[in-house]
Amino acid sequence: MIEYRNVRVALLGAGSVGSQVARLLLEQGDDFAGRAGAGLELVGIGVRDVDAPRDVDLPRELFTTDVESLIVGADIVVELIGGLEPARSYVLQALNSGADVITGNKALLASHGIELFDAAEQVGAQVYYEAAVAGAIPIIRPLRDSLAGDRVQRIMGIVNGTTNFILDRMDTDGSTLEDALATATALGYAEADPTADIEGYDAAQKAAILASLAFHTAVPLAAVHREGITSVTHDQVVAARKAGYVVKILAICERLVDDEGVEGVSARVYPALVPLSHPLAAVHGAKNAVFVEAESAGDLMFYGAGAGGVETASAVLGDLVSAARRHVIGGPGVAESTHANLPVFPIGRVSTRYQITLDVADQPGVLAEVAGVLSEHGVSVHNVEQTSGATPGVTVEGDGVATATLIIGTHRARESDLAATVAALKNATVVNSVTSVLRVEGA
Ligand code: HSE
Q1: CA separation (Å) from 195 to 52, 109, 112, 192, 198?
Q2: Is 202 in the pocket of ligand 1 (CB under 6 A)?
Q3: C-alpha of residue 190 to centroid of ligand 1, in Å
Q4: First to last CA, the chain
Q5: Pocket lining: 311 vs ligand 1, CB cutoff 6 Å
Q6: 190 phi and psi, to 5 degrees?
């Protein structure tokens, strides 16, 4: 039996992920020790309430409410409390005392990442956070290490399981958004307050983390453009499938060069049309996937469980073994790389393709007038489809003039030009209504 030196691990939080981390550490600690070259000694579990019900039976003597004392003397602190405070203070205390930190706290990293990484660098410690984005899926280490010798051009991620479940239900069984959300809540995917999921806040935090890593640039959460799924209608989802697309809410991180030749990056979250032939279109239910386009490696896709206690514990424990190994080897932690320091472009400077659906008067000259509006704003038409009759979901009032539905697909256009185009279309006399504007991604 090999005798390893022990690394002291303090666990903060014993929720669905924390309790599984503790269980696996206690059950499989010998295996982990063999991989790390160090024993992983769970010295305590810091919680608010020692007697709160837990998913897993764990030795009572491990629990303490004295979190600050637990942090003192730990070599590695695993923060799985979530939220900004007291998590931020505990993480700073741990780093300032020289401990490495493992966290799954995307909100904390997206809002205070720079402060935490600076604190780690000051003392040569390291922050590990594989569990913060897309649960069990290895994506942080691939971006930070495996692709360190490549140039990531673009990431398109389905990084929120709740909203992917809702949109998938709307697509596959015709549910309304409200019904699909109720099912997501009943199945335990959605929180009691689903705002962070359906309004895209959760995905925006993950986009900030992914973009910062991929482009070696600090991307603040405030610079991430965010639109949720609450405006996605059943009619849009049905029309999308008819046209060969599926609606997915994506976190997009992109390296781009704008019209003035300036290189920058964009991080944005919105529902978009994804071609049915794209690998992301096959991501169903509450699953997550991250599609990475790299200059040399080409297209890569990382797929799996984006949430769940034991699944996310896998990512945490992988970090724990890495951190313990580093303790054995010694030397300072690897600092976050922000050397590229590229400007983060606002959404108006981003270009993509769009699909605009209009309800129009079905009479001579209408198509020409609509095409004229697009042309005036520098937006080039890629394809047009017209069907007679009102757009599904639109009630046309009025004098009996025949109506038609016009679906216009554009070439890549600048977001600000597209916004001006849509505003002008709304005012055009031949247009009864602009019934849908969706970006097309991955085409
Ligand atoms: N609420 C998230 C989701 C899980 O639905 O994917 C944790 O990020």
Answers
A1: 26, 19, 21, 9, 5
A2: yes
A3: 8
A4: 56
A5: no
A6: -90, 145
Q: Does any domain span residue 420?
A: yes
Cβ(306) – ligand 1 distance below 6 Å: yes
Query: How far, in Å, is the centroid of ligand 1 from the Cα of 202?
Result: 7
How would residue 190 be classed by pLDDT, with cut points 50, 70 and 90? Answer: confident
> Mean pLDDT score of the chain, rounded to an integer?
95
The residue whose C-alpha atom lies closest to atom 7 belonging to ligand 1 is: 307
Mutate to test the pocket of ligand 1, among 197, 201, 316 (most ligand atoms within 8 A of CB): 197
Q: Catalytic residues, which ones?
A: 206
Statement to judge: residues 195 and 318 lie in one domain: no
Residues 241 and 97 in one domain: no
Residue 338 falls inside a structural domain: no
pLDDT value, residue 335: 87
Q: Is the pLDDT of residue 178 over 70?
A: yes
Same domain, yes or no: 358 and 321:
no
Residues 343 and 363: their CA atoms lie apart, in Å, by 47
123 with 212, same domain: the answer is no
Q: Is the CB of 359 under 6 A from ligand 1?
A: no
Mark out the alpha helices in 335-440 (DSSP H runs): 366-376, 415-427
pTM attached to this predicted model: 0.95
Q: Tell whether 88 and 167 lie within a shared domain.
A: no
Q: Whose CA is nearest to atom 4 of ligand 1?
A: 307
CA–centroid distance, 305 to ligand 1, in Å, is: 10
**Number of neighbouring beta carbons within 10 Å of residue 300:** 17
Please state, for a pLDDT cut of 90, what percent of the chain lies above it. 91
Same-domain status, 41 and 78: yes
Q: What domain range is 201 assigned to?
A: 140-304
